[in-house]
Design brief:
eight-stranded mixed beta sheet, alpha/beta, 8 strands, globular, single chain, 342 residues
Length: 342
């Protein structure tokens, strides 16, 4: 546990984080709506690059035209993919969900475009970053439904890119913050209905500082309220914007201990989990309880502790822990993909 509530970082980094906090607070309204026009100026979309950028190519794909659901596909440039275990020559697929409290950012945000590019490069894998529908315009369970739609897209061989050989039998879910929450719920919905998938097999779940909660205020939430990125007032607003009307934080989307949240977790199809926790993240108590819940159900859970890490630390290149997380993710993907092919 940190001895101070002031995380170590440079003055420039602290100013940059204040700007992020300002943008979040300036665009969310007390009535639960967002100023999307202002957000589009503060968070402009960056284009995909079909030619290699830092060794990784990207393209935008349509997952479901009926709801205009899109994703950005990243893959190592030809000659850089190493392959792992069974299916070598075909790339394992990491279905990624960005953070942003269910309401902010997108698959085309500069920060997450760069993150997914790094993941693809380190893990020698394809990354399908889902541009899921966001709250408050689209409340729970829209984001979870979009995650399942991404798996259905991968399950259909007709959607296989001719020039990027994807191995849907070595499929991972990953996400940070709200994206980690989405990845968990998509995993349990998949596990409860895995028999309906012909080709997709989930072999791992990477939950990076997942966003869970409850009506209780935990010690870490109270002790670290006011650190960068996450505050009680912001997370309360995000839950109100995302949860179904009238629901509180005992709802299964927020609280993994809810009886309604158990479906699928008990299934043998629920995959092994890599869980990352930061010592300056106010959500860490919920994340540790999440890991304990999974272990209590006999699940394989590996926990990475970063004592000096703030919430979303790995998005910011200044923090050295971000590189370590990339290495650990790559190791997890390689080991799990090889085990899944045996």
């Amino acid at each position: 546990m940190p001895e101070t509530t002031k995380p170590p970082m440079s003055r420039l980094m602290r100013l940059s984080l204040k700007a992020v906090d300002w943008a979040t607070d300036a665009t969310r309204r007390a009535d639960g709506t967002l100023n999307r026009r202002a957000l589009s100026l503060l968070d402009p979309r960056v284009p995909a690059f079909s030619s290699p950028c830092r060794g990784v190519c990207s393209r935008d794909v349509v997952l479901d035209p009926a709801i205009r659901l899109r994703a950005r596909l990243f893959h190592p440039a030809a000659g850089r993919a190493k392959g792992a275990g069974a299916g070598a020559g075909r790339l394992p697929v990491i279905v990624f969900f960005h953070g942003g409290g269910f309401a902010f950012l997108s698959a085309a945000s500069a920060a997450y475009d760069a993150v997914c590019r790094r993941i693809a490069r380190y893990a020698s894998a394809a990354v399908l970053s889902v541009d899921y529908r966001r709250a408050p315009e689209h409340r729970c369970p829209a984001a979870y439904d979009d995650g399942i739609a991404a798996l259905r897209f991968l399950d259909d061989p007709k959607n296989q890119p001719a020039d990027v050989p994807l191995d849907a039998s070595r499929c991972f879910l990953a996400g940070d913050s709200a994206g980690g929450n989405i990845a968990h719920h998509v995993a349990r919905h998949y596990a409860a209905d895995s028999a309906t998938f012909r080709n997709v097999r989930l072999t791992g779940l990477v939950a990076i500082q997942p966003f869970f909660g409850g009506e209780e205020r935990t010690d870490s939430e109270l002790r670290l309220d006011g650190v960068p990125i996450v505050t009680i007032s912001r997370t309360d607003w995000m839950w109100r914007a995302f949860l179904p009307p009238g629901a509180d934080r005992t709802h299964e989307a927020a609280n993994f201990a809810s009886p309604a949240a158990a479906a699928g977790v008990d299934s043998p199809s629920f995959p092994p989990v890599l869980l990352a926790i930061g010592g300056y993240d106010p959500l860490q108590d919920w994340q540790r309880r999440y890991g304990e819940m999974l272990r209590g159900k006999g699940k394989d859970v590996r926990v990475l502790e970063y004592p000096n890490a703030i919430h979303a630390f790995y998005v910011f290149p200044e923090f050295d822990d971000g590189r370590d997380l990339m290495i650990r993710m790559a190791e997890f993907v390689a080991e799990s993909a090889s085990a899944g092919g045996e």
